[in-house]
Fold this sequence. Notes:
The protein has 100 residues and is mainly α. The protein has a domain at 29-95. It is built from four helices and no strands. The chain has helices at 29-39, 44-58, 65-81, 84-95. The chain is elongated, with a radius of gyration of 19 Å. The termini are far apart.
Amino acid sequence: MPFHQEQTMSAQPEHGGWGTMPLPEIRTVDDLRSALSRYGFPGDRERFEEELAAAIGASPTNDFAGAAAVVRAYRHRVLIRNSPEIMSALEDARTGGGGT
């Protein structure tokens, strides 16, 4: 009697390395919060909340440029975290691999 093994799906990329995760559009601060929770680096969501609160607290009432800069920085972190090319380069730098 032949043995049949069902194929299973894994969350890990089949050939190693970083896979591309489809990101939702990040249009609002709430979108960014959700993306940080799901796609960000560990601890990003908590640090974002702390930095955003500090930036808002230090902002003049008619100038939220500091808060906007925090939002832009963390949006960029989500994009970095989900770029296979960037994450591969970071891993190579961390392990001393890659290069020529």
